[in-house]
## 1
Amino acid sequence: MSDADEHGYFGQFGGRFVPEVLVQPLQELEAAMHAAFADESFWSRYGQLLRDYVGRPSPLFVADRLSSSAGGATIVLKREDCNHTGAHKINNTIGQGLLALRMRKTRMIAETGAGQHGVATATTGALLGIPVEVYIGAEDARRQSLNVYLMKLLGATVRVVESGSRTLKDATSEAFRDWAASAGSTFYCIGSVVGAHPYPSLVKRFARVIGDEARAQCQERLGRLPDHVVACVGGGSNAIGIFAAFLGDSQTKLWGVEAAGRGLDSPAENAASLLRGTIGVLHGARTMVLQDGGGQVSATRSIAAGLDYPAVGPEHAHLQASGRVTYVGVDDRQALDAFSELARQEGIVPALESAHAIAHACDLARARPRDEVILVSCSGRGDKDAARFALGEPH
Amino acid sequence: MSRNLGAATISGVFDGCKSADRAAFVAYLMAGDPLPSTTAALIRAAIDGGADIVELGFPYSDPLADGPSIQAAATRALRAGTTFDSVLQIARSLPVPVPLVAFSYFNPLYVRGLERCARDLHQAGFAGAVIPDLPPEEGAEAVAVFASAGLALSFLVAPTTPAKRLSLIARVSTGFIYVVSRMGVTGSVTVIDRGTKALAQRLREQTDKALAVGFGISTPQQARMVATFADGVIVGSALVDLIASSPPDQALPAVRSYCARLSAACRRGADNA
């Protein structure tokens, strides 16, 4: 229903705006993707690894104390933080890793912001026996030193990127540049529903296990569908993953939460591409981009490195344009409050990225009756952020 | 269809070089690097040295097809305040008409509006454009808009481009076809990939349009080798590096003499074997 057309467009967004050297690798990937998706043995291997290695299905948890504290509707958490490696990212990397094996690629590369996708890719590489190199911006490497250590421990090579703003966008550019020279032997395991066609569709297919499970769990456990589904949006893969199962449920309201950083009205101090961006082309897709009037991509800022990206998956731009999903901003302070609130009320320390979604869920809950259900994607755990604060970073 | 003046200008340069038994030497410079005020003189130095065409880079924050040299040049140019309008101003300030080709990533053009860009580029004296991240599948509007503004639009072919796409790219390109000599991004290499000649030959079977080879060429020896099978030799990163490493008062003579050596290497014929 909302899948991309044959050219990779979701409405007017998406496409394949890449240097010619990348066209053939993307075509090869697209063909391999379709073949794998039509192959039952691929899904059987994928399902087996998600169960035995990742620990799926992830729990659905009714957060009673958080709901009471927010003072209204019932908040239910989809616990992607319980996955092996502590975030939803591994749903995607296992899928892409298996695809890399099918394509007989002997090396995987990845970009990472918060380090979660880097850790998930490094983990997948170790599991499947594929050497991994991860690009990370120098600024992020500093902010996420725990994950840099983990990637190395898992046997990956970490490449620190010093160009541009030294964050996720520059790590992504560098990974594409690597791939332009190495696509014959290398699989680029992208970390979100961004980039040129077919990446947004490929990543969505692996992320949608979140929503498919959560929808079935809601029906089974609560006997009904949620009234609201809330997820944070950087590139937007956990959000697309949970939304995908509910797009056809017109009674369910969908909320994407962007990083408002130090404020939506402070240019270069947020990462709210949908709320403050304009239409542009970045990393191969036409989408909403934070940029100046001359088409130069802006600096972004969020306390959550995983949301610190100046564009967003093209399907989100389409879902915003069509009105199916409502996008809102949560700033650093609100995210930090939700981070400690969930820890204290439920004994769950969420990633700062996920805390953006928790904060908005609490806002929604406040004004609504107890019998309304708000499903939140708790996309990852917060150990990486706790480590930053333990090391003395102010918050 | 009305005559594409820009394409005719560029084809004219390649035809002239062919009659003189030489490949055209295309010099790439990053506009605004190190300052918007220095670029016009650097263009003149390249032309004085023997450049037949100047490809003028529009700085962009996220140049996906470029290696470290041109990335750094773009960063310097943007820090120096270079904008789309200041690059147009540089082009307009050139006292003598020079065959100028704009090299710009798609996003700045898209955000400004393709029709407005085409009109502005034409009025500023550009004969054509290269948009390195716009494959023909996404380029239908740009092809139409640039053609009606009288500008050539050159697409790129890469070593991995399959035969079917080679003919598509050959068909939609005007002015010349940009042959990427290797997988990867711009930047000097020690050895030009031997597959480049085969790629140019495969393309030659599809088209009579001029073929200019770029990505990686930095020495007269490499230029001489490429000139044996291509209509044009494009040198960018090495020139950008030369400007970055020259003391300010030495940059112009350095560019002039480097371009003279590359231009001489583009001559075919027995004395240059």
## 2
Amino acid sequence: MNTSPSPETSRSRRRSRGRAPSERLRVLAGIVLAAILAAAYLGLDPVRFFSQVRSWKVVQEFFGAALAPTLTSESGSGYFLLPQIWEGLHSTVLFAVAGMGLALVLGTVLGFLASSAWWEGELVDASDAWTDRAVRAIGPAVTGTVRVLIAFLRSIHELLWAMLFLSAFGISNAAAVLAIALPYGGVLAKIFSEMLDEAPKDAALLLRSAGGGAGTVLVVGLLPRALPDIATYAFYRFECALRSSAVLGFFGFPTLGYYISASFENLYYREVWSYLYALILLVGVVELWSGFLRRRQEFA
Amino acid sequence: MTWDLSVQNASVRVGSTVALAGVDLEIRAGEAVALVGPSGSGKTTLLRLLGAVLSPNDGEVRIDGKDVAGRSPAELRALRSRIGTVPQDLRLVPELRVYQNVAAGRVGRRSLFSLARDLLFPQRAALAEIHALLDRVGIEEKLYHRVDQLSGGQRQRVAVARALYQEPEILLADEPVSSVDPARARDALELLCRVAAERRLTFVTSLHHIDLAREFFPRLVGVRRGRIEFDVRSDEVDDAAIERLYSLSADELLEEGSSR
């Protein structure tokens, strides 16, 4: 019988050891109260909510169009819509892939630096060698600085970054890619560092006792324990990047949003729905792909 | 020739608790020894001293005749790379495959780059060597399985193979029978004793199961309350000594009671 708890069980125990029931109830009541207060302050009245709709006709037309998306233009010229849908999808994917690629590099580097795994605890040599002393000395400062940088990157929304880069670059591909890469890099770095810090260190410590250096052991003994979670989260963020990339079209980039806004301004709702369905399809394909990879468990 | 071990008057304190109090122990190269005693007696701490992962507050530990204290980090790593450990909780990387976990055993003699290559694109020769080791421990068909798909007994065999892949001079095991199904306890000990004997490794294990210790090991070292209670050939150990080893003194009974 195994008497010592495995790292997994001690982890889940830490999670489940929550608050007392009465305290939990108070927290829940607090959340509900805050929501009600905010709604009241904003003048949201559930009774009069639907009477505030200005034009039921627009609502009806818009959602009615959902049932009748079109592949030919509603402008009457009768030209085929597929090339535009293709162009929109194509740019949406390109901007998302480029932005996410840069974000992954940023997130990995900053995430590692923001984690305390590389300088704190038993994994790091307690020796007097100057390299070990230096790592222990600068670790907290580096992690603290990088965490501030990460917070800055992700507290500015990608649309705000886009506005900034638009005024700097004009409509250039670099503006859209950076607008996605910076906030996404920040979010990925935060999540990666937390996953690294939470990953069980037992295997890494064993490899230390087999003579492994701290850096090697981090990569071989600790990183694989966090990698499946990291990969799953990165896929989810890629899905978000696709949506962000599509919305950037509203600023004039050639992604789906560009075509959606043009059709919307002309009140061509059936065209709008064609583009929306294309986006939904794209997100669905990514979902299937990541699910397939997860089932094969090919992350390690 | 494998390494001998020598502990002289070693004490280990953790905070205000004394884990080991002036322990003397000599183990010859190639010898197999079981550390017996109740849980919390200091067996695991003693194993950590022998594995050069812990240094004593007082006294000295010599491995292969050389003092462990005062070694540079590089020398310490070189020393540890020749000491294979099978810990109680095995400490495998469950997300990785069996051959990757075994290959990680050579972490002490590989650069990050070459180890990463061994894990991601293993060379034919390395795979053949790992396969042969898995064959020795009886799970050769599990080479490409993920460790989290294996049973407890199979996982322990992976941990043994990882320790052997280090090409160790010393093999240490912490309560090997508690990592497996009780019915497999005998198999686990047989395996460890067999591989240690084949390679003439110096082999030290902690074991609270006194009958198994007597059956499998020629020499028993009784540890109680941080001290060596007896150190005898297993055919010479008498029941009175064992009773003393596991008996609780009055204040220990009190501690047991208050800790529940």
## 3
Amino acid sequence: MKEKIDRLQFFFMIPSILFGKAIGITAGVIARKIGADVWTSMAIGFAFGIIIALFMVYICSKFPDKTMVEYSEDIFGKWIGKFISLVLGVYFAYAFAISSNVITLHLKEYFLTQTPYIILCLIYVVLCTYGVISGVEVVIRFSFFGFFMLWLINITMILGTVQDFKFVNLEPILDKGIKTNIINSIYTFSDIGMVIMALGMVYPMVSKKKGLKAITVSAMIVGAISVLIWPFFEVGVLGADVMKQFVVVCMQQVRSAQLTRYLPRYELIMVTFFVWSMFVQSVVMFWSSSYCFKSTLGLKKDRLIVLILTPLLVLLTNQLGKDHNNYINFLAFPWSQISIGLSIVLPLMFFMGLFVRKSLGRNIGNTKGRQ
Amino acid sequence: MKKITALALVFNMIFLTGCWDSREINELGLVMAVGVDKKKGSGIYTVTAQIAKPSSASGQGGKSGGGDQPVWVGSAEGKTIFEAIRNLAKFSSRRIMWAHNNIIIIGESLAEEDITPVVDFFTENPELRMKTWVAIAHGDAKPFIAAKTGMENIPGISMAELFRYHQLPAESVATDMLNLFRDYKSETIQPLVSALTLKTENSPGGSNQVELEGAAVFQGAKLVGWVSPEETRGLAWVRNEMKNAIIVTSGVGKEKQNLSVELKGARAKVAAQVTGEIPSITIDVTAKGDISEIDSPTDMAMSELKAKVEEESVHVIKREIKLGLEKVQKQYKCDVLGFGRAVHIANKDLWYKNMADKWEDVYPQVPVIINVSVNIESGALFQEPTNIEKKSGKD
């Protein structure tokens, strides 16, 4: 692979992908299921997610120079491999549309209420196209900036809402019971799934792969903490009953924040801070989708597939988000179930395939990637 | 590639100018305060908006002359709040903007009927901040919006300042939309909302003044009654809203003095004990304070005075809490203090199994134990209490 990133950039990429949608949209989806237990349920989801991410990196380490699209062909043969890359292409396309809608919904519902939704989708997708054409590694490189900005949001959100924080809103902890918390933690996989799948695509880009497992785990822990601060404070400040009411809960949280009486409005600051990590998430999803489709169709030119995908993704983003109730329902079902299914089944399939191949004495690892 | 980039940039320049949402500041009417009324049994809402007039509000007069009122007050009717607001545009020369609104005042008859439309409209409106103050008016909200109250140029700002400084007299609660919406939605606590009255006696010879005093008690979305300033103090102790209050203790020592005690860092903890059919509640209040005023000289030493004042302060706080509790628990039967939440936290299984559905019946019977502890730390600036050392003429 000609694109290269270093381990630090890889580290910062993970929280950037994990953060944007989870803090408001996913938190709202889970709050509607289990109320004030949203943060404990998400914590359980992240704990499982870290294990699966580690497993994914372990699989990737067997094919250090290949994306999972390539080694799926190596493990399962050409046609099954192509089918997997087609499934992944569709998954990443939807993941991109979901990610884009996080931005476009923020803009549509809180700032540009009169602007036609399709225009917002068009502008954001064109911006992401520019990012993909410029090079996904370029965008991943400024994950550090995205990470810095997301912590600025976290800190300012805490400062702006701490006077309204009531711990009693979080009690009783594990109100709905541990079993219900575990069951509902699957919704966290609509975000964790993006990271796990992205790991399988980005891994060969990392120039030095020593210690990547530890880096992945620590990045996931940092990402999970960055995210969990939000549902924790959202429940403490808004209360679970108010959280259930809103589509974009994080915006409701910052709408309730007041950074001193001289800075009573905070929404635009929040979006300005968090758009950077969202952009990393969107571009990685877009690039991964284009890479998978390119592999499925056997195309050679990157730009051709990107230019074909751009209008399709504009339409998909618009279709998915123009009715925000449908968007949220889609995330609750079937997107979360698909995400957790792919996140678990795919690495497991690769592992079993590897195991079977190894048992048959066929060495397929450590071969050069296609790019 | 450069052509595509250039095209994309040109494309974005066209579409990112925000044509659809462009709103020039000189075309906007910035709402400073809004009142919503609805007559009993009527299906018509009346929305009264107090809108700042920039040239006059700045205090410089400008072209319109110094005699101009700094605000314009308009009122319109509609079958819904939104329709009433849109009807304001029939005679308002500017488009209404809510982003700078300071306060929402709800008329008494609307509050008695249902505050849901107000809560729903203003929480769904992205322009409005959740930290906007909310109050229930004694009577209609319209006169409050039209009143020239306070020392600020804009009465809406004057009313907002009352909320900011409400802890000085500590005879009301400061409710913002966030608090109201949270309690309105909650299954285990009822809303207690700031109350406003119009009074003339506070400004001799002047116009009516808006006063923040007492509170409105809700059962779900409906106003069920009012609590007096003293009862509100009692409720505010338990709701942890008495951060910097003063209390007046009377009859201290043999001189039966009145003293002002400035309390700081008051904290209340509500805990439930679930043993039998009916749970019990314990309220623990702790506070620190300084003696700020004494109304006559005393012979008592500071340590003795502190002990007496502590004892008397405990009585005063307990009495206020009991007063408030009597009203909301026995008379209104509204759980504005979150006892249901305390029971839920103490025993969630019991809450879901036996208590949640019949809490409204159980709540009035719940026994409450009140423990108050006051620590008087100092006598403000004095080393000794005020006493008279000079001898009388005979001596």
